[in-house]
Structure of DUF3179 domain-containing protein:
Amino acid sequence: MRGLWWLLALAILVTGSAGTYMVHLVLEAKQKPRIGDGSNPATYGFSFEHLTVPMNEIQASGLPRNSLDVLDLPPRYSAEEATHFRGRDKYVVATDLILGVELGDEALAYPIQILNWHEVVNDTLAGVPIVVSYSPLTGTIAAFDRRVGDQTLEFGFSGLLLETHSLLFDRSDEPSLWSPLLGRAISGPAAARGDTLRPIHAQFVPWSVWSKRHPEAEVLTRDEAKIMAYRRSPYGEYYGNDILRFPVSKLPPDRETYPYKSRIIAVRTTGDWSVYHLADLVRRADPRGIYETTQDGVDLRFTVFSGDPITAYVEAVDPTDWFDFRPTMWFAWYSVH
């Protein structure tokens, strides 16, 4: 019982709906085996051998390992069911933000209101085992193939952060830590091997945009036991200002032009990563909201949607061209690149 006081103290310090969120997790944590004291990464049961990032950049989130319920192969609604939920109620509406993934002829939407409370989904799409990751503190959107070498990994919530963005761990006998922002293992046996994850395009757009492009898309279901939690926005206050909750070792210098939490999309084609600030894309887009550019010989198209937050759909003009991209916040990308 005494071991939970640090969690209660943290919940008191965090105000607004985010505070309610933390208190909820504190109460849930009482019912689960707890690994990690909330402040010292060494107590989380992970090996930091073969670490590929500075140890001082890894932080405890205040939550124990496995304190969020990762979703494993969750059920789905059809688009029709999601928009006409139980007759009159709607599960998703036009303005709801989603993380959208497309593979082959299948498309799947993960509502952010649900991911806020789980962050990690081990799923399968078009026969491919995938992991979907959302880090609310940095707005980092990512999806990857879970197959690495001859293994199909399952991922969990580590309770640790790298420069504020959430780290995953693989559920193996000797777990490694993984960074979705970097797309690779950063410690443990997988880091020693230099293991990386094959990226899968994950769009961060309103449901209206995704459903128009993918009318047959399926939608992640919700855990009925958490229905009251899903109705709250635990990070509303955090997104409403430019104050960071955790210290970051390297911050962007020009905060007046690009606030720390401003949204960006980092894109890699055949060369290095390039950063596109969404506020810039709004100004550069044509009246249709489209901005086209060429990066290392690959023609890219951004379809930009003004709003709060600004979002953009990213695609290659030639669908056969390879590229990778990562929607996130400016400070998060700068800190690790």
